Amino acid sequence: MAPLTTKDVPVPYGRNFLMVPGPTNVPQRVQNAMHRNSEDHRSLDFPKLGLAALEAIKKVFQCRQGHAFIFPGTGTLGWEAALTNCLDPQDQVISVRFGQFSHLWIDMMKRLGLRPIELDVEWGEGLPMDRMEGLIQNDRAHDIKAVCVVHNETTTGVCTDIPAVRRLLDKYQHPALLMVDGVSSIGAVPFKFDEWRVDLAVTGSQKALMLPAGLGFVCASPRALERSKTAKLPHVYMSFQDHLRSNVDGFFPYTPSVPLLYGLVEAVKMLEEEGFEQVWARHHKLAEGVRRAVRAWNLEICCRDPRLQSDTVTTVMLPQGVDGVQVVKVAFQKYNLSLGAGLMRLRGKAFRISSLGDLNELTILGALAGVEMTLRECGYNGFKLGAGVAAAAEYYQQHAVQARGFTEAMAKI
Amino acid sequence: MAPLTTKDVPVPYGRNFLMVPGPTNVPQRVQNAMHRNSEDHRSLDFPKLGLAALEAIKKVFQCRQGHAFIFPGTGTLGWEAALTNCLDPQDQVISVRFGQFSHLWIDMMKRLGLRPIELDVEWGEGLPMDRMEGLIQNDRAHDIKAVCVVHNETTTGVCTDIPAVRRLLDKYQHPALLMVDGVSSIGAVPFKFDEWRVDLAVTGSQKALMLPAGLGFVCASPRALERSKTAKLPHVYMSFQDHLRSNVDGFFPYTPSVPLLYGLVEAVKMLEEEGFEQVWARHHKLAEGVRRAVRAWNLEICCRDPRLQSDTVTTVMLPQGVDGVQVVKVAFQKYNLSLGAGLMRLRGKAFRISSLGDLNELTILGALAGVEMTLRECGYNGFKLGAGVAAAAEYYQQHAVQARGFTEAMAKI
Amino acid sequence: MAPLTTKDVPVPYGRNFLMVPGPTNVPQRVQNAMHRNSEDHRSLDFPKLGLAALEAIKKVFQCRQGHAFIFPGTGTLGWEAALTNCLDPQDQVISVRFGQFSHLWIDMMKRLGLRPIELDVEWGEGLPMDRMEGLIQNDRAHDIKAVCVVHNETTTGVCTDIPAVRRLLDKYQHPALLMVDGVSSIGAVPFKFDEWRVDLAVTGSQKALMLPAGLGFVCASPRALERSKTAKLPHVYMSFQDHLRSNVDGFFPYTPSVPLLYGLVEAVKMLEEEGFEQVWARHHKLAEGVRRAVRAWNLEICCRDPRLQSDTVTTVMLPQGVDGVQVVKVAFQKYNLSLGAGLMRLRGKAFRISSLGDLNELTILGALAGVEMTLRECGYNGFKLGAGVAAAAEYYQQHAVQARGFTEAMAKI
Amino acid sequence: MAPLTTKDVPVPYGRNFLMVPGPTNVPQRVQNAMHRNSEDHRSLDFPKLGLAALEAIKKVFQCRQGHAFIFPGTGTLGWEAALTNCLDPQDQVISVRFGQFSHLWIDMMKRLGLRPIELDVEWGEGLPMDRMEGLIQNDRAHDIKAVCVVHNETTTGVCTDIPAVRRLLDKYQHPALLMVDGVSSIGAVPFKFDEWRVDLAVTGSQKALMLPAGLGFVCASPRALERSKTAKLPHVYMSFQDHLRSNVDGFFPYTPSVPLLYGLVEAVKMLEEEGFEQVWARHHKLAEGVRRAVRAWNLEICCRDPRLQSDTVTTVMLPQGVDGVQVVKVAFQKYNLSLGAGLMRLRGKAFRISSLGDLNELTILGALAGVEMTLRECGYNGFKLGAGVAAAAEYYQQHAVQARGFTEAMAKI
Fold first, then answer.
1. Which of A143-147, A402-406, C385-389, D142-146 comes out lowest in average pLDDT?
2. How far apart are alpha carbons A114 and A147 in whole angstroms?
């Protein structure tokens, strides 16, 4: 057969490699769980679904003592729900800006009438613990009502040591609420709501939970729930108290997204079948492969401190002269590969590779090969083709695990 | 074959007859449009979907001049978005309580710090136009900033003549914003945002749009959009201005529910293929059949004024001694039929039959037969079995339409 | 609201009422079980699926001692597989023509080179047991190698008393194989392969098993399996022996329809959850409602002997002047109702209403109401509108069962 | 974060990389087209679907003058249909055994009572054209009724030059029917039924057509159709004549697999949107990448003649001491990668990598990385990790194409 010439195509073929840090791939099993007709959300039997969903999400937060709320909405709504249910107008809060998402949360605080103390750091760095300690130490009047931190800055791939923040507050017996944005972390990396004594934690459906966007989750400690009885920032849709009244019987105060509730129950079942510890280990392994690939490409990881490097997203810094916007575009149009773009200050200077959600080694390796071809095409030649894939594959092979009972699982896909 | 005895079953068989006024049946075609993996909501090509969805929902509102917002959320969120984007704290608004949903909206107004003037009527009646006129006429200072009306009270099946409210405001050249809750009406019965000069209209995905719950829609007139630039009720997630900035390029300010956007585009395509006028006519025809059945059962329709009887839901009053809670329970457990319960003041005294969404004559007739068996079982014998079905069938036969080109449509199911 | 005029529509709305005796409605749960990517049918783990499917179909036949084959194909292929695997060219077989399907099977026998003894009866009647007895009694040389009977003639809605045929063969100790076409019966009405000592039974996926067409099933007794080792009618694709060799390890001799195997396992799980006895009782109840409706319409049921009336399909005779072709057409185009047409000799003179598969009372009642409107429209006025529905509803109400634990089931839909 | 230990998992995570040469990946778009309730296959409107499906499959064969049959079944059934419809018992046919599938077809011929002249070659070689020429040349009596060749031996990845076989018959004006097994080729590589004057060609749904198994297709030339009127091998289910009688009106002689027909129409639509020439070019490109990887691993491709190397499957020979059964097992259990096993004579000595169906560069590259890890693990160290991926990636980058209008396509996924 003579080789045929290929030309531009009107349509992409094969599966899109979705490597953005959310929305993540929705497993067929979860897609199918959501594929159903609607049902009456006030029926006699609805509470079984309602209670199952409420129970499932608590497990993800690793929370037994508080309550986890399920809002039709997104993580952004979760931020607002956490703030408006537990704070009064003009309340002072500490917050650190180390990427776009922490920036947007701070912006929200201001627009809601709160007074955030904004701590800025270089993007790529983690929390300035010393400056935070100074503020806490000096706030003897306890004017600071909350410390709001992002667990995993999706912009930079920098993590936060939540237990360290908890210890800081404890050290000074400071009563500020500890609020955590865990949108791109919770479910994928260790997060222990009760054990770490977090007061409010927020996540969304379209990340570690492998669902489409459409649910915002807020987990609240008993202390936060108590606070929500009297907090004065106006809110109705997001009201903890309204939800509590309905949730107790397995209902919701307005029409819930029935398919997403079924999807949530199924997704958490998948995580439990694999085991949460195992899921976290898998995310670590997959991310470590990505990091080894980046180093093999002779590129920098945005997050400088290896101890803070995220297991759900790796932000890759590009050398001068290589345009990050072009990288994302070429990857998408030529290789059907969706990479995360550099955001705000990192726009054009970086791109992001997710290792979050329903992924496995071969998907990561295929994506890394796609990045290699893209980098070449965009003018970066500082590595030998295949070098990144080889580095990751070597690591994956060393840490390979064997799936037992493949079929039981596949039968459910 | 000797007849076999039947006994209670662990599981229901056949399809659930979902006759609650939302969530409504999701057509297979719409279910399939939503059955997909996630995709990058910031990709180069995402705007085609984003713009298609934004365009689609405007058609449903019959709006050309304003902007229609798509929020991950529900109609309740839509209410709050309409209020918080366009009003200041302590603003005075007129609102009429004629069922549970108007009641809840008023409750929200108060909790958000507005000052509603609450007009109460008997449940089953429509707007007290004379009392409203008095208020408008006397408000020479224009302290009243908005008139908030429910287009279709899902509790009672009573409609509102929106053009009449518009005329009332015009008569006194009153500048109050006209806000309409069209959650259980828009898309199913005539609603003309531009022509009727509505300022803010709210609906949700799980009613006439035949989608699962999960999207709240708010349509805003140019005047409302202008007002939203300066309104002072705090809000971020629901911010019109944030959405406008992203929507202009086909994006959203946070992760949208991608499957629901695809579903929305498909659902509106279905409505357009049938034709909006035709969809409205169909809802009228199906509802009229239900009403004729109710009369044949010698029962009262909650909505006394025939001109105000809803084409999307019929609330049926039960005679003394017949328990509405029991009716809903028996219908569900014995006939796999989901009826709407009587709400609040009507609890136990009424039940509701929806004619909203993806239904046809035979589904209604099957449901009516189910109601007849249920009523019998619950002790109501004031009718001859089959009488309601016959009354509806007679009407449907007289108004039968013929589907041309069945296959083109079925090919897409 | 002024009533709106309705006109012909380009597309049907609502769900098609599929009341033909196959293909039947596919439950959402079964549709979802089939919605998956392909998988390697020679993988290490495939046998778990293969064995589960083979086990499942045996339960449907109520067979423990023989083997049930799963062919990619239809019931027609099942007929041919039964014949070619167990007979030699020129073999004599007895067969009764009492409808289109028994006619087609006889036609196949002749084309395959067999010599059927064809017994004809009026359509609407059952097996001529006396004439069959005569043939068996006189065949002392045992030239007759098989007796081939249709269990449920889908054309006429007439059933066969299989145990009576068995007793007939036993009475004369005649070794002919007992072959049964159970395409439109097995799984829906009592059928007991082992207990009745059937030798070969055939069914298909698109009837009681609630799957799409695409699988033909043949159940073979140990005696039939033995016979298949030496039978000389040529066949390869349909070879029992090839399948046996692969099936023993859970494989198939060529690529199986993976989604259909998953669907089969799920469908049988549904039948088992309900209970086979209960499934049979349900079919009887639903069919009895249909029969009562037919009588209330003052129409004749094709099957004259009430003891032989089918619980899966009722053939309704039309009076002179009412065109059956028109009935089917009007029902489809005006009411989105798919009825079975009269076949061959009954073309234009009858139509058929199925009570087979995933149906419930309300679906039947809706369909009956559709038949009533259609009959009116086609010029038959010999009944009062609603009379058939009322007769069926009365029966259904008297025999209503209550579903316990609705939610567990709905959670799986 | 401290690295976590990983251990064996009960369930695989992420997507299975399905790299067997059938069944191939079913695109979401095709899965959704098949996700539907059943419908009446004798309805007034069914022919639109029937005719669309019959038209679609003809395009795939590149046939205008003959007829293409759609059988519920598989390619194996297609083989049998081609033989039994056009040959008489004892007919002589030429056939070449160069892999398992050609072997099985020959076996079928014998069991059906034909007399194949069996030509054997080394596995890895193509057709022995000289020996075939000798047979044709010497058959002056035209006793040879058919020449049966496999277009693409899925066992060895060896192709056949069909036009060369045609020329051979023409050279001697030999009237034998030219029968082609194109199960793993048609739709993926150039095949031109009319232009090459093939008489009978067979394929199945689960290969290039990206559907589940369940449909066998046979394309017949006018000459073959003529022959089918009188051929004497017994057959009914597979009868061309029965199908022709029904197909002319858009129907089928027995219940068709409705979802598969919808899937077929959608799949062919996808192929047409991409363009058949483009689809062939894509398969060539993807396969060429695989071959370059194999060479970079210093392994042999089973097919020795580069001109005959298949673009749909590459059979890779393993060195002494590396067990092919183990390779397939490790790939599956450790990397969720499904490779084709070595078959019959190649069992344990080879494995196969498919490039057939709905695949793209990144999927192939991910799979190649998986093969590399697997080979390492199975004791083969004759290459540097990443070498195969790099070789393929280099080629893919050089031949990269850009997708225009991504979204239009994705909107349909």
1. A402-406
2. 12
* Contact check, Cβ <8 Å, D413/B48: no
**Within 13 Å of residue A46, how many CA atoms lie on the same side as its CB?**
23
Q: Who among D26, D38, D45 is closest to C212 (CB)?
A: D38
Residue from the list A6, A14, A373 with its beta carbon closest to the beta carbon of D401? A6
**Mutation target among D36, D181, D254 for the C interface, most CBs of C within 10 A:** D254
CATH 3.90.1150.10 holds for B17-24+276-398: yes
Nearest CB among A22, A40, A212 relative to B259 is that of: A212
Burial class (CB in 10 A: 0-12, 13-18, 19+), A64: exposed
The residue of chain D nearest to residue C330, with distances taken between CA atoms, is D44
CA D333 to chain centre: 26
Q: Which residue of B has its CA nearest to C363?
A: B366
Interface contact A397-D403, CB threshold 8 A: no
Residue D159 φ/ψ, nearest 5 degrees = -100, 165
Beta strands in C130-208 (DSSP E): 144-150, 152-153, 158-159, 177-181, 200-204
Annotated binding-site residue? D352 = yes
Q: With contacts defined as CB-CB under 8 Å, which chain B residues touch A212?
A: 38, 257-260
Beta carbons of C46 and A406 less than 8 Å apart? no
Q: Which fold has domain A28-272?
A: Aspartate Aminotransferase; domain 2 (3.40.640)
Chains that contact A by 3+ CB pairs under 8 Å?
A: B, C, D
The architecture (CATH level 2) of C17-24+275-398 comes to Alpha-Beta Complex (3.90)
**Residue (of A83, A213, A93, A72) closest to A145 by Cα position:** A93
> Beta-strand (E) ranges in A75-191?
92-97, 115-120, 144-150, 152-153, 158-159, 177-181
Query: Interface partners of C (3+ CB pairs, < 8 Å)?
Result: A, B, D
Using CB atoms, which residue from C72, C108, C257 is nearest to D236? C108
Chain D nearest C-alpha distance from C308 (Å)? 26
8 Å CB contact of B386 and C404: no
- Would you report the helix, strand and coil content of chain A in percent, each value rounded to 5? 40, 20, 40
Q: Do D32 and B32 touch (CB under 8 A)?
A: yes
- Distance from C-alpha of C150 to C-alpha of A197, rounded to nearest angstrom: 71
Contacts of A367 in chain D (CB under 8 A): 362, 366
Q: Which two tokens stand for residue B40?
A: 């990058």
Domain boundaries, chain D: 17-24+275-398, 28-272
Tens digits of residue pLDDT in A363-374 = 999 999 999 999
ipTM over 0.90: yes
Q: In angstroms, rounded to a whole number, what is the distance separating the alpha carbons of residues B49 and A262?
A: 26
CA distances from D263 to A14, B384, C200, D357 (A): 17, 48, 33, 14
The whole-angstrom separation of Cα B207 and Cα B188 is 9
- pTM, whole model, 2 decimals? 0.96
C287 backbone φψ class: left, alpha, beta (φ>0; ψ -120 to 50): alpha
Closest CA to D189 of D125, D278, D316: D278
Is A213 in contact with A182 (CB distance < 8 Å)?
no
Q: Which residues of A touch B26 (CB under 8 A)?
A: 37-38
Q: Is the peptide bond before D23 cis (omega within 30 degrees of 0)?
A: yes
Contacts of C25 in chain B (CB under 8 A): 14-15
Task: Please list the residues that pair with D43 across neighbouring strands.
Answer: none
Q: Which residues does chain D have with pLDDT short of 70?
A: 1-7, 404-413
Q: Does D44 sit within 8 Å of B406, measured CB to CB?
A: yes
Q: What is the pLDDT of residues C288-341, one digit of tens each?
A: 999 999 999 999 999 999 999 999 999 999 999 999 999 999 999 999 999 999
Query: Do the Cβ atoms of C286 and C314 come closer than 8 Å?
Result: no
